[in-house]
Amino acid sequence: MQINRCGWVSEDPLYQQYHDNVWGRPVYDSKELFAKLCLDGQQAGLSWITILKKQQNYEQLFANFEPSIIATFDQSKVEELLQNPGIIRNRLKVNSIIRNAKAYMAFVEQGNDFSKFLWDFVGGKPIINSPKSLADLPAVSPESEAMSKALKKLGFNFVGPTICYAFMQAVGMVDDHQVDCFCAVDKTS
Questions:
Q1: What's the distance, CA 178 to chain centroid?
Q2: Among 97, 148, 155, 167, which is most exposed with the fewest C-beta within 10 angstroms?
Q3: Is pLDDT of 1 > 90?
């Protein structure tokens, strides 16, 4: 039996598993949101499948994206990370994870809730777009532009509006499953 998936999903089983079980599912845990934001930043200029295939390596090398540990990484740790072929060996991207961890820590140490902060950009609940085709998917939205601006103001980087929109899709802030996709939200119920 043929399963209808969104048009961007390839035949790669890893991609299909990601689409079917992760993409577009709401995530509310602050540290998980931090991890996903960092991974989306690594995608800049690359395909998502490239990052997806390296995700376990990122988790291992970046202390399961524990911001308090990553924030302590120094230049010698950066040099060590840049030698590892299991991640994207781009100095700006590696440094961005460390910078983002420091920004995250500063934000939460002031008593702020990172999850609430991010979810407030969509009013606390997923925006359901129900696109008919890939052509109907935007690369940015007013919400992703606002999120990008706010994150940059907090000291985050690799969080442009396009990265923020992809992040919002990945963590279910925006549900962009195509209407004929088996994961699409049934608006009749």
A1: 19
A2: 155
A3: no
